[in-house]
Structure formats: C-alpha cells, structure tokens
Write a structure and sequence with these properties.
The chain is of the alpha+beta class. Helices cover 45% and strands 15% of the residues. The longest helix has 167 residues, at 509-675.
C-alpha cells in the first residue's frame, strides 16, 4: 500500500467537510419589494396582483421592437411587498426569523439583489425614522440578550475564525492592556452622541425581542464589515494611519478555510460591541469608506458588494450559575451575514467611462457567477447530476459557499423599480429569482444542549438576594469581628447611674459609679465567655461535620478514582483501537485515492478514445459523402458521355443506312438494266467468294459495306424463282441485294457479267 501510495508522488487531498446529516431541506426564501415610482406620470411596467404574485407589462413601443412576440408574464415569490409596505413589516417577515435562529445558535444569510437604483441600500440600511433590516436586527439582538451579556473581553477571537473564553480577571487585564498600550481604536460608547444621519433609526414602539433565550448562558456580539470591490476584499473597519502627503492604500484580504471548513476573511477586524447604538455606529464608520459614485441612473451608486457580519458567541454558566464555564469546546458561535449586492447595470445607460466601466464589468461578472452557481445547484438537485459548482470564480460565491452547502438559512430580497426604462434588466432579475426559488438548502441542525441543570442563573440571583436580606435583618455583614458584636450587645447592659458631682466631698456618687461599672464589666465578661463557648461549640460542630463530610467525600473520591482508572484503561484501549482503525482508514483512503486516480486516468483515456473514434467516424462520414458526390458526378458525366456517343452512333448508322439505300437503288438499277435487252452492260462489280456457316459460299461485294448473301435463308423464306417476287416481301437490304444478284446470275451468266467482275455463286 505504501508503494502504491507514493508511486504517483501526489499530496493527498484533504477530506471534504463533514456536515451534520439533515434529511430536511428548505428552499431559498425569495421575497420581492417594489419601489415607488419617482414621478406620478411616469410609465409603470409592474403590477402587484396578490401578496405572492406580480405581473410584468411591456412598456409602450416594446412590442414593435420585439416583432409582437411579447406576452405578459407573471412571477411568484414567497411574499411580495408593495410600495405601501413599511420597513417594520418587511423586517418581521424577512429578517426576524434569521435573528431568532442566530440567538439559538444557527447561521443565516440575507442579501438584497436587483438593478441599480432599485432600493437595495435603503432596504438594508434605511434612513432616520425608517430603519432598514440591519439596524432592526441589531436592535432585536441586544433587546434579547442584553441582561445576559458577558463583560468585555471575556470572549476573545483568534486569527483562525475561532473563539476563546477567559475569566474576568484576565479579561480586565486584557482591557487595560488594549486601552493603555495597544493602538487599537476604542469602540464608540452608546452614551456618546450619535451621528445625526443614523440617529432615531428605530422608534421604541417598533422594537422586537426574541423568545426562548437561554438564560443560563452568557453572550457577546462581534461585528465586522467588509466590501468586495473589483473582486478584491477590503476591511472597512481597518484603521489606517492618515498621511496627508502620501496616503497609504488599503490592503486587500484573502479568504481562508478554518478547521470546520467554513470560509472566513483572514485578518479582518472584529469589534466587540455592547449595544445596538454602538454596533450601528461601527457600521456607519465603515459605511463612510464604502466605494460609491454618481452615475446617470443613481446619485450614490454602490460600486462594491458590502458584507456586514454579526457574530454571536455564547457559552453556558458553570454549575453555580455565577461564572462562565471555562471550556473552549462549550463555546458556540453563530453568525448572520447581511449582504448588500451592487446593482447590475448597462454602461450605455449609466454613461460610465474609464474606471466606472471597469467597476461595472466586475460587478456584472460577479453577479453572473452567482447566477451560474445557482443554476448549477438547481440542475444538480433537480436532474440528479454531480456537476462542480464554480464557487471559486468569484469572491462573493466563494465566501458564502458554506451556506448553500447546508450551514444555515438563505434568504434574498429582490428589489425592483417599476419604471419602464428598467424593463429589460427587471426581466432578467425576475428570471434569476424564479430559478433561485427552486434551489433547496439543507436545514441546519440544533446545537447540543449543555448537561447542567437549567435555571442556574435565576437560582444564583435568588440566593444572593436572600443572603442580602438575611444580613440586613441581622444588622450587618456576616464577616464582622467579635468586638463589634459585643458592642452591639452592650446596649442591653444595665444603665449607668448619674455621675454628676456637685460637692467635692461627695463620697457616694463615685463609689456608686465604680460599682455600676464593675457590674457592667462583669456582665460583659460573662456575655463574652458565653459567646466564645457558643462559638467554640458551633465551630467544633462545624469542624466535626466537615470532617465527616470530608471522610465521606474521600470515600466517594476513592470510588470515583477507581471508576476513573477503569475508564482510563477503557479509554486507552479504545484510543489504541481508534488509532488502529484510523491507520486502516488512512491506508484505505490512500488506496481509494490511487484507484480514483487510476479511474480518472482511465476515464480520460476512454474519453480520448471516444473523441478519436468520433473524429474517425466523422471523417468516415465526410469521406463517404465526398465519395458519394464523386460517384454521382462521375455517373452523371458518363451518362452524358454515353448519351452523346449513342446520339453520334445513331447519326452514323443513319448515314450508313442512307448510303446503303443509295447503293441498293443503284444495284436495283443495274439489275433492271441487265434484264432489259439492248441496254449497255452495267459497270462491273467485284466481290470476294466467302464461305458461309452452312458450308456454302457467298459473294461479298467490295463496293458495298457489309453486304452478305445468305442463299440458304432466302430459299427457306420461299423466295420465288426466276426473279418473281411480291411487293413488301423483302425488307432486308442485304437480302434484296443477294436475291437481285442471284437472279441476274441465274438467268444468264454470260461473258458480260464476268467481264464486269461478278462471279457466279458456287454450290458445294
């Protein structure tokens, strides 16, 4: 196995993240908010039909541009918020369930999406008197956990997206060290005057509070604020040293993965806040650094994606309900990400130039990557495919990949502008929203409950109140000394007699006073002795009871030690077994990785061969088509050539037939002249004597081409003797010529014919 593993020399891949199994899934909650029109007489292209459906109408002139192929479309959402819906109603339906999940240890993601100028920033941030989702979420969080917050620096973040817990003394030292030595900016106190731009965001009657908050835990809130500009991550809470001559540009941050396979921004500043006002003041300090610009469509157009992260750390109290349990494994961290995505835009409409064109291109590209990831997730879930989701193509999708993999709820608010100029962009936004609703995210599991008895904080508080009441009834603190107790009891001693001296010779007053003082001193000594005896007896009883308790606890401790020893032995055995199993698992994993590598290489080779076979088949089909074309062309060519040759041959044969007819006419004339007496002899005809198939001989005239005589055939056809024939009996040219010559030779084979070169046919 070791040889097989090191054969390829590859570093083993880290195992994939192990999420808690959850068979229940929830679809992504998509909401729609319609922005009011800027002008009353402006044309509107969106109509709210019901609380869950809207309808898009084509503006005037749109059908002409689209050749009349447009038809009105309807889109459904989880809930539609019209122009008259307030910020409170929007928060109650959208963000309030996410804040409840945050307080109960679950993660959440909420982002706004839409074209530029559709009201996304107003929905997320709001304005004075109309606070958005972000300030209302902060207000609800601190209204719910306010009485149970831990002191500052009890929870401490590390550099690896983790959370540590320390006692109050260390927290106090940490606070003094940070405030006095380190150049860490102090957070804004809630008592200071707020910025007038963010003052009075939420009215007191609009405040919300979560139900079912765990009173036996301590909480602390950390906030961070980042922006993604041109696909680079910048920390908006980072304090840069201001240099008027040469300002230092902000440093971009990188994404990392923690031990739980969650993505986080490395080196991002996390500020601990203790009130909603302080948290929103921190947010507003970062909001002023966000990249905005003035475009033709929006006076303050966001040029980056902003992400405000609220991280809630909570840890249970100890068994006494007084201090936080000093166990890092018991610290639970949940976070809520509020994302304000930059709006998609067309450079032709915004009139962007130079840097603005580059910003718009990066914004549109990141939104396109988001749509691609959503589309592939939807395809994998609906079609059962296993395509890789390209989260790493964009910082936005890479940062929130854990949420789509089942790390929390995901909600989206689609903001739309009903004006007719944004109709094309709104149509694309609606299609993306419709596709996003079909993506399902695994429901997060509940965190484990601590094993301590519930109600510890309440019992501890009741005990302290009862103790204070008892001390007040007894007249003082419980740890006062004995003289103070005696002085308290001295008021019950006999009163002193009058000690006024009117006569220097008075011998009664002084002895009486001395006697009274002696009496009081004797009573006091008796009281002190009785008190000491009672205290000694009480202390002896307490000591004996404590000795018995210690003896009993020692016995229990010995039993527990035995149990611990047996448990340790069992743990050692299980650890050895676990190590052995882990070793086997490592070997199997290495072997599996080797086999997977071989499988991938074989699959690649198979794909290569398939591609080669497809190319060969394509070449073969192309060659067949080419040969078929060549054959068709050749066949057509030869058909034309044959037709031409046949026509030429027919013409040639017609010419030959005409020549034969002319010669036959001449021959007829010669024969007729030979029968007429007194006519001069015809010109001599020469011919050759040829043997026939039947063994006879025939004369072949050299002056007439291919004239043959076949006497046997002529006789069998019943030709009349002595030249007698009927009209129409002979149709063949050769037959007529041979018969004519035979008749002439048979009638008179004289010297005249021989003189002309005609030989008599000899029979065998």
């Amino acid at each position: 196995y070791i040889y097989l593993f090191f054969r390829k020399g590859k570093t083993p891949r880290r195992p994939p993240p192990k999420y808690a199994p959850s068979s229940q899934k929830d679809p992504v909650g998509v909401y729609c908010r319609v922005r009011p029109l800027g002008l009353e007489d402006e044309e509107c292209c969106i109509e709210v039909i019901s609380s869950t459906t809207i309808q898009l109408h084509a503006p005037e002139g749109f059908k002409t541009n689209r050749n009349g192929e447009y038809k009105e479309t309807q889109y459904s959402f989880k809930k539609v918020f019209g122009v008259s819906i307030s910020q409170v109603e929007l928060f109650e339906h959208v963000a309030k369930p996410l804040v409840d999940d945050l307080i109960h240890g679950k993660n959440g993601l909420l982002f706004t999406y839409g074209v530029t100028g559709s009201g996304k920033t107003f929905t997320m941030t709001g304005s004075p008197g109309q606070g958005g989702l972000l300030p209302r979420s902060l207000n609800m969080i601190f209204n719910s956990i306010g009485p149970y917050q831990a002191k500052r620096y009890v929870f401490k973040t590390d550099d690896k997206n983790g959370m540590e817990v320390q006692n109050e003394i260390d927290a106090l030292l940490e606070r003094q060290r940070r405030e006095n030595n380190l150049p860490v900016p102090k957070t804004t106190s809630s008592r200071q005057k707020l910025d007038p731009e963010i003052a009075d965001m939420i009215k007191p009657e609009e405040a919300y509070k979560a139900d079912g908050v765990d009173e036996d835990s301590s909480y602390s809130i950390f906030v961070s604020y980042i922006e993604i500009y041109n696909n680079y991550i910048y920390d908006l809470l980072e304090e840069n040293q201001e240099d008027a001559i040469k300002p230092k540009p902000p440093q971009s941050r990188i994404l990392r993965e923690d031990q739980n396979h969650n993505m986080y921004v490395a080196g991002c500043m996390e500020v601990e806040v203790k009130s909603a006002e302080e948290a929103f003041q921190v947010f507003w300090r970062g909001q002023k650094k966000r990249k905005v610009a003035n475009t033709r469509l929006n006076r303050e157009s966001s040029r980056s994606h902003s992400v405000f992260i609220i991280k809630l750390a909570q840890a249970p109290l100890d068994a006494d309900g007084d201090n936080i349990l000093q166990d890092k494994n018991q610290v639970s961290v949940s976070q809520l990400c509020l994302v304000d995505l930059a709006g998609s835009e067309r450079t032709g409409r915004t009139g962007a130039e130079g840097t603005r064109i580059r910003e718009a291109g990066n914004i549109n590209q990141s939104l396109l990557n988001l749509r691609t990831c959503i589309e592939i997730l939807r395809e994998n879930q609906m079609c059962g495919t296993n395509r890789m989701v390209p989260y790493r193509d964009s910082k936005v999708t890479h940062l929130f990949k854990n949420y789509f993999d089942g790390e929390g709820k995901v909600k989206m608010v689609v903001c739309v502008n009903p004006k007719a100029d944004d109709y094309d962009e709104t149509l694309l936004v609606m299609r993306f929203a419709e596709m996003t609703q079909e993506v399902e995210v695994a429901r997060p599991v509940d965190r484990p409950i601590c094993g301590f008895t519930p109600g510890r904080r309440h019992r501890n508080q009741a005990f302290k109140e009862e103790l204070s009441r008892k001390l007040e009834e007894r007249g003082g603190p419980i740890d006062r000394d004995v003289p103070s107790v005696i002085n308290h009891l001295a008021h019950s001693l006999p009163p002193l007699p009058s000690s006024e001296l009117t006569d220097p010779n008075d011998d009664i007053t002084l002895p009486r006073l001395i006697e009274a003082l002696q009496n009081r001193h004797r009573i006091r000594q008796m009281i002190i002795e009785e008190y000491n005896k009672s205290m000694l007896q009480e202390l002896d009883g307490n000591l004996i009871s404590k000795d018995n308790f210690i003896h009993e606890q020692n016995g229990r401790l010995a039993e527990r030690e035995k149990i611990i020893q047996s448990n340790r032995a069992e743990m050692d055995r299980l650890e050895k077994k676990t190590k052995m199993q882990e070793h086997k698992i490592d070997i199997l994993q290495k072997t599996t990785k080797i086999y997977e590598g071989d499988k991938r290489s074989l699959q690649q080779e198979l794909e290569t061969r398939d591609q080669r076979l497809q190319r060969e088949q394509t070449d073969k089909r192309r060659m067949e088509q080419r040969m078929h074309g060549v054959v068709s062309d050749t066949q057509h060519k030869w058909e034309k050539e044959c037709e031409r040759r046949v026509n030429a041959k027919q013409l040639e044969m017609q010419n030959k037939l005409w020549v034969k007819d002319e010669k036959l006419k001449q021959l007829k004339a010669i024969v007729s002249e030979s029968k007429t007496p007194g006519r001069p002899d015809p010109p001599s005809l020469s011919g050759d004597v040829m043997k026939t198939r039947g063994g006879g001989q025939a004369v072949q005239f050299t002056d007439i081409e291919t004239l043959r005589q076949d006497r046997k055939r002529k006789s069998s056809e019943g030709a009349p003797a002595n030249g007698e024939r009927k009209d129409g009996a002979w149709t063949d040219v050769e037959t007529r010529c041979s018969v004519a010559m035979e008749m002439r030779a048979g009638s008179n084979m004289g010297p005249g014919l021989e003189h002309h070169g005609i030989t008599k046919r000899r029979k065998p």
